[in-house]
Structures are given as C-alpha cells and as structure tokens.
Amino acid sequence: MPWQFKKVVWLKVEAVDMFKNPPRDYPAVTALTKDGAEVQVDITVRYQVVQRDDAIKELVRRYPDLMFEENAIVPIVREEVRNIVAKYTLTEIIEKREKVRLEIINATEHRLISDPTLKGCIKIIDVAVRNIDIPSDVKKAIEEKLAAQQEALAAEYRKKKLLIEANATALAKIISAKAEAESRIIAALAEANATLIRAEAQKKAIILIISAYNSTEYALIQQYISALEKVAEKGGLIIIVPQEQGVPVLITPPSGSKG
Predict the structure, then answer these.
(1) What is the pLDDT of residue 57?
(2) Claim to verify: residue 128 and residue 110 sit in the same structural domain
(3) Mean pLDDT, residues 224-241 taken together
(4) Which tens digits make up the pLDDT trace of 64-117?
(5) What pTM was computed for the model?
(6) Same-domain check for residues 122 and 215
(7) Separation CA 231–CA 249 (nearest Å)
(8) What are the CA-CA distances from residue 29 to residues 18, 41, 47, 192, 215 (Å)?
(9) What is the rounded CA–CA span in Å between residue 175 and residue 156?
(10) Quick one: 33 and 115 in the same domain?
(11) Residue 46, domain extent
(12) 124 and 32 share a domain?
C-alpha cells in the first residue's frame, strides 16, 4: 500500500503585513528612489485561496510545500513596490505621496492576479500601503525646502496682487480723468451750440426788423444811426419819436445853449 499523506490548505482570508516596526509578518519593503534615496514602504496584502477543488489541487501541484506566500506573493509585492518607487525622486515621493501609493496598489494587485503560478488559485482581496517612510533628516530638509518654495510662491502672489491693485487704481484715475474731460468738452459744446442758436435767433430777428422797412427807410435808418453816433460824440441830443409809423426826428440843441 503506497504512502498516504495529507496537506492542510487554509481557505480563510490571510493577511501579509510587511511593516517597519513589529508586530509584522515580514519587514517593510526597502526601496531606492530615482535619485538614490532610501525609503521604506509599509504594505499589507490580503488574499484568499479560491475555494474550488480544482483550484486547490492546482495550487498544491504548483507549490507542493504550500510556500506560495513566501515564494510568490511576498517577492512579487517587494518587486512591484521597488519598481514604482524607482520612478520618482525623493521630493516627488513626498509631494505626490497619494499618487505613488495608488500606483503601488494597482501595480501590485495586477501583478498578483496575473502571475502564472497564482492565477486561478489565489484571489486578491485588497492591497493597502500603510506608510511611505523616509529618513527623518532628509524629510526635514525637503519639508523646509518645500516650505520655502511655498513662501516664495506666496510672496510672488502678494506681489502680483499689489501690482494688479495698483494698476486698477491707476486705471480708475485715468477713467475718471477721461470722464471729467469728456464732461467738460460736452458742456463746452453745449454752450457753443447755445451761443450759435442765440446768435441765429438774433440774426433772424434783425432780418425780420429790417424786412419791415423798405430800402429807402432802411437807408434813412442807417443815416440816423450815423448821425446819432456823431451827436453822441459832441454831446446833447433830443429824439422825437412820432406816434405813427415813421422815422424818428433828431434835434440838436444850438451850440453853447444852456439847459
């Protein structure tokens, strides 16, 4: 009778913890950034063996010692974490921590699901990046650098804001001065137009007065006006205005007469 043996395969959800500090199943993943800085990534992978006879038998065939966690899952996780971290500089890791975290999760899940020795036998529940730890001295220096950059950006913003406000004030003054000048021009034009209108009205009135007389009467009027100017120069003038329509009579007192 051939030797008989049995293997126990756990079907419950298993968690693989790779942490910097205990308690843990494995140490954290140590990885180098694009610029050669060392970081440590705490990560947890939860998985479960597919609960089907054919899947269990295939897993046992592929891993007779059932060391698939140590020989497949953990190495795959470490490799993917290192590949992702190597794409970024240390500064980028700090600035884009969430982006890096999600990229590690997606890459690790995809690699575990598609691995030919695990495919169809292992179901990945989830992958969680707990922490991306960098050396404290480097972290402090980078944080100070980032703080200085933020302060520089804030100062530049304040400078631009003041410049915009100054430009707005200057523009407001220009607009106000332009409006005042336009207002004065409009007022001057209005006054000029009013003067022209009054002059035109006076012109028409004079024309109407003149038209009331015939040419002979108009000539007499011109003579009287001339005579008035001369008498005014010598002094003494009596004007007799007839009641009916006619030309006024001018009487000049005798020279040397007393009033």
Answers:
(1) 93
(2) yes
(3) 60
(4) 999 999 999 999 999 999 999 999 999 899 889 999 999 999 999 999 999 999
(5) 0.54
(6) no
(7) 13
(8) 7, 5, 18, 91, 123
(9) 28
(10) yes
(11) 14-134
(12) yes
CA distance 239 to 249: 6
Query: Are 143 and 222 in a shared domain?
Result: no
Please report, for the domain that includes residue 126, its CATH number. Answer: 3.30.479.30
| Contact yes or no for 85/33 (Cβ under 8 A) | yes
Cα–Cα dist 98/132, whole Å? 10
- Give the pLDDT of residue 78: 97
The model's pLDDT over 35-69, given as tens digits with 9 standing for 90+, comes to 999 999 999 999 999 999 999 999 999 999 999 99
Task: Say if residue 184's pLDDT is above 60.
Answer: yes
SS (H, E, C) the chain: CCCCCCCCCCCCCEEEEEECCCCCCEECEEEECCCCCEEEEEEEEEEEECCCHHHHHHHHHHCCCCCHHHHHHHHHHHHHHHHHHCCCCHHHHHHCHHHHHHHHHHHHHHHHHHCCCCCCCEEEEEEEEEEEECCHHHHHHHHHHHHHHHHHHHHHHHHHHHHHHHHHHHHHHHHHHHHHHHHHHHHHHHHHHHHHHHHHHHHHHHHHHHHCCCHHHHHHHHHHHHHHHHHHHHCCCEEECCCCCCCCEEECCCCCCCC
Residues 117 and 158 placed together within one structural domain of the fold: no
- How far apart CA 143 and CA 125 sit, in angstroms, is 35
d(CA 197, CA 139): 85
Domain count, the chain: 3
Is residue 61 a contact partner of residue 117, using CB atoms and an 8 Å limit?
no
